[in-house]
Design brief:
Layout: H1 8-31, E1 44-49, H2 53-69, E2 74-79, H3 81-87, E3 95-98, H4 114-128, E4 134-137, H5 142-150, E5 156-160, E6 171-173, H6 181-187, H7 207-221, E7 229-233, H8 245-257, E8 261-264, H9 271-279, E9 285-287, H10 294-303, E10 306-310, H11 313-318, E11 325-329, H12 334-337, E12 344-348, H13 371-374, H14 378-386
Parallel strand pairs: 1-2, 1-4, 2-3, 4-5, 5-6, 7-8, 7-10, 8-9, 10-11, 11-12
Helix pairs in contact: 2-6, 7-10, 8-14
């Protein structure tokens, strides 16, 4: 039982938990009936993707495959509250349930509280009442397989072997760290038949949302400005992915010489830094951080003629369209997490000395930034812009 967990203490704990669970699931694995996946008549399906917006977007081709394979099934997506907003109009999904899982490295919501445990308890029982025929966990998280597969009573459990949990699942794809995340999510579904060749992220935006986003930008910038609009996404939920703001200043300065109108996007937490960056270019660059809904932001990536940013969900949203993207990478592996688009250019430092598989912290920071990001100067990004 292998596990792709890089923190040594967590890995040892996981091995111990896996050993106990292996014994508990041994009777099922020895005496249980094998599942005939290619003829499985699933009528109620639970898809689990509780991590970040970008991860959910990269999983969207799998939603298409599941809907194609089970056209008459009722499909429920369990995801984070932000993703619910983005996928609320998705015709592939019949129902969305949410839970804000506390990931340890986030600035906020990074640990379980009593109220969160209580919410999780009620969620599991609510899902159990729906009597799912199939549960698919795209992350390969043993906790999710237990909580939303085993404890909800789902008849068939499918996922990947990331946390060494093969014995818990009726089918577990191999977790290949050399593959792109989008491709790994499709691997999870290989048991159901041939995976389609056409693979691209997809989200569905209403015409009303597009009109509202267009109106917002026209009021801010003017009608003609939308013909050459650059969106800057300098912020990430993980500080280690940050690129120095003075470098973004240099990139924005270059974009202004090319007659681009520039908007900076981010969350409410990013408002101060975003406003500070925009203030360097008064009346020329506009901060929209914390001022748009996620749907409006998605529409703006569609309207934009260029999106430049660090490894963040905005770039993955932009990859759903034909918008050119410049993606700045360092501590995270671009082969796994680059925007999955033929219109994307990756600027990768290739100099990260830390463990890119964990991308949790940098042991050799420079001025508060990961060394690989600090040493990746703005000229590399400017050259990428010039190549478009």
């Amino acid at each position: 039982m292998s596990a792709l967990i890089h923190n040594k203490k967590k890995r040892l704990l996981l091995y111990a938990v896996n050993a106990v669970l292996w014994l508990l699931f041994l009777p099922k694995n020895v005496f249980g009936k094998s599942v005939k996946f290619k003829s499985l008549p699933a009528k109620k399906i639970l898809l689990v993707r509780l991590d970040y917006i970008g991860d959910v977007v990269m999983t969207s081709p799998s939603f298409s495959f599941i809907r194609h394979r089970f056209p008459n099934a009722k499909i429920t997506l369990l995801t984070n509250p932000s993703a619910k907003v983005l996928f609320s109009k998705d015709p592939r999904i019949d129902e969305i349930d949410t839970f804000n899982w506390p990931w340890g490295h986030l600035r906020a919501n990074n640990r379980f509280s009593f109220s969160l445990f209580k919410e999780l308890f009620h969620l599991v029982f609510r899902l159990r009442r729906k009597k799912f025929d199939l549960m698919v966990d795209f992350r390969g998280d043993m906790r999710f397989a237990l909580l939303f597969g085993f404890f909800t009573g789902a008849k068939v459990l499918v996922g990947n072997s990331r946390s060494g949990n093969k014995f818990m699942l009726d089918y577990a794809s191999e977790y290949d760290a050399s593959k792109h995340e989008l491709e790994r999510t499709l691997d999870v579904l290989a048991c159901f038949g041939e995976i389609p060749i056409v693979r691209h992220p997809e989200i569905f935006l209403s015409d009303e949302a597009k009109l509202l986003a267009t109106k917002h930008l026209e009021e801010l910038l003017g009608t003609s400005s939308l013909k050459k609009l650059a969106m800057i996404a300098p912020f990430s939920s993980k500080d280690i992915k940050s690129w120095p703001l003075p470098y973004f200043e240099a990139v924005i300065k270059h974009l202004l010489t090319l007659d681009y109108k520039v908007v900076i996007v981010g969350t409410r937490e990013d408002q101060e830094n975003s406003a500070s960056l925009a203030s360097v270019f008064p009346s020329k660059v506009y901060s929209l951080a914390g001022k748009t809904s996620l749907n409006e932001l998605a529409c703006m990536t569609l309207i934009s003629t260029l999106v430049v940013g660090v490894d963040t969900g905005v770039l993955h949203i932009a990859s759903c369209f034909d918008t050119p993207i410049i993606a700045i990478f360092g501590p995270t592996r671009s082969c796994e997490y680059r925007p999955y688009s033929k219109f994307s250019i990756v600027v990768d430092s290739g100099e990260c000395k830390c463990d890119q598989l964990t991308h949790a912290k940098c042991d050799s920071q420079v001025n508060g930034y990961a060394r690989c990001m600090f040493e990746l100067g703005p000229q590399a990004v400017i050259r990428a812009i010039q190549s478009i």
